[in-house]
Amino acid sequence: MKAYMLAFVRVNDLETFNKEYIENAVPIVQRHGGVTVAVDENPLTIEGTVPEGRVVIVEFPTKVAAEAFYNDPDYQAIKAWRQKVSQSDSIILEKGF
């Protein structure tokens, strides 16, 4: 069953974020079968309060693959770059109706 990683990201230094994090994270995502479904800097909130900033949705073939990406030692090594220049809240979604 497909799984989706949903991240709300507030970037403080976009240049460093893109160069040090995105360029290195994307190949790791792909290695685990992940595909970026959507990235939006200004999502339209239709109800409630959503954290400001970028929203990212990444599709993985399974929840296990999504967790394997997040726990991958290569990803853990670059996660520190993301944490230096941004704050984020992330979840993995799996089941539908």
UniProtKB/TrEMBL annotation:
UniProt organism field: Tenacibaculum aiptasiae
Residue intervals passing through the bilayer: none
Name of the protein this chain belongs to: DUF1330 domain-containing protein
Domain DUF1330, chain residue ranges per copy: 2-94
InterPro entries assigned: Dimeric_a/b-barrel, DUF1330
Top-level taxon in the UniProt lineage: Bacteria
Regions annotated as coiled coil: none
